[in-house]
Design brief:
2 copies of one chain form a homodimer. Chain A contains 10 helices and 12 strands. By secondary structure, chain A is α/β, with parallel strands linked by helices. Chains A, B: InterPro entries: Alpha/beta_knot_MTases (IPR029028), MRM3-like_sub_bind (IPR053888), Ribosomal_eL30-like_sf (IPR029064), rRNA_Methyltransferase (IPR051259), SpoU_MeTrfase (IPR001537), SpoU_subst-bd (IPR013123), tRNA_m1G_MTases_N (IPR029026).
Chain lengths: 261, 261
């Protein structure tokens, strides 16, 4: 197994650019996964792997060994890197010791069907990752992100997504209004407006588009107008706000509950 | 209004220590709030303010003016600081230009009654803040944190809590087992074990203690054993995981829904 020790190594510089530069990721159509959990999820989803890098220390862990020895596709390069170098391409303070360069999955365009989560200007990486993880768990198949959202395939968002990415069809940089123009079903948004209906009094059984906006501002007026139904999450505690990912979890799982009855 | 320009000013050093050092916060029993939203929430809750610091630029904002001119308690000191200094005591990259030093609210010990959210080793500041915000919104009155949790009153957790802190009775550094020993009602925990009952098939109407554990590990075996009922959130999407704050939002709002019928 080839060993990289220098930060001037071209492959290492390429990996670090993928981690640090959203533009380079977009140009290359590739990203870096950190840790065994994400790598296993991507592998199970049939994602194309270009290379896996490990530290000597991590190679002594059974979970890492199993990935390296059992699960790597034939064309995937395997490299050893020093701990210091691995730390520089990991989004966390205590890296797992294994990372992988993958092709960002490009699904062929599909018609909008089933449920869709549309996000406008969600810029916090942790929130975006949590939203993707929640959508995947709730069985929402498609997520559409406006150009103002954080990059879905950045290492930080991947980390918060915990593998949810690989169960979703994710469209980035989308014109949300355009996407909605071909959609015939309900378009739902949470709101505090007078016309908003209590979430639990709303029939959520039909396939729907859910709109959620940025943390600070919420949905733009233009998008809120596109909602065919505004819903209000009742909050008896006196505060009138939820984190956007918490609000989405409440809505998507209430929809799930109604469909199971 | 007194102006602080030097980072060697004793008051400024005190503020920075409150922001940066959890131990100093604990010793002093005080913390720092960043931004008008948190300051207004604390003020409305009757929290004791020691001082408010503003930049000259922020003083031109109507919202900040209204706080400074209308709402400050009589014993609260008002200081002007330079932009550079304010940035050093703000948890965000683009500070709001106003911060306040407050007394961490110390509620007198109350018996456990109503709903309680118990958190074991939740170390991520964003997750902890979101959990507090969700609990406050759902009307859960009390939150109990194990010693391994992040500090609830740190600037980062306060920021993610968005004022939820001030609607809650928060106990930190608690012995969760001890707290549970006097509790007669249901103790609920999410789990993937065989004996876990579907969340939506569980009667959640009685006042309950909800247990949630750390992101990576979940609840310890010891705490999971203390649950009188293990519940499973159905996840048709094929992934078997939710962010802890998303999971808590789903559970606490399902409880709310059941009680409203």
């Amino acid at each position: 197994m080839k060993l990289i020790q220098s930060r001037d190594n071209p492959t290492f510089k390429h990996l670090r650019a993928l981690v640090e530069e959203s533009r380079y990721r977009r140009e290359q159509g590739r990203t870096v996964l950190d840790g065994a959990h994400l790598i296993k999820a991507a592998s199970a989803a049939g994602v194309v792997f270009h290379r896996v890098v490990v530290t000597a220390k991590a190679m002594r862990q059974q979970e890492v060994q199993r990935i390296v020895e059992g699960g790597l596709p034939s064309r995937c390069e395997l490299l050893e890197v020093s701990e210091t170098l691995l730390r520089q391409i990991s989004p966390v303070d205590t890296p797992a010791g294994i990372a992988a360069e993958i092709e960002i999955p490009r699904h062929s365009p599909v018609n909008v069907c089933g449920d869709v989560l549309m996000l406008e200007a969600v810029q916090d990486a942790g929130n975006l990752g949590t939203l993707l993880r929640t959508a995947a768990a709730a069985g929402v198949g498609r997520v559409v992100l406006s150009a103002q959202c954080a990059q879905a395939w950045s290492p930080k968002v991947l980390r918060a997504g915990m593998g949810g990415h690989f169960a979703l069809h994710i469209t980035e940089g989308a014109d949300l209004t355009g996407e909605l123009s071909t959609w015939q079903g309900p378009v739902l948004a949470t709101a505090l407006t007078i016309d908003a209906v209590d979430l639990y009094a709303t029939d959520l059984r039909a396939p729907a588009v859910w709109l959620f906006g940025s943390e600070g501002q919420g949905l733009s007026a233009a998008m809120l107008q596109r909602a065919t139904q505004r819903v209000r999450i009742p909050m008896p505690g006196g505060t009138e706000s939820l984190n956007v990912a918490a609000a989405a979890a409440v809505c998507l799982f209430e929809q799930l509950r109604q469909r199971r009855i």
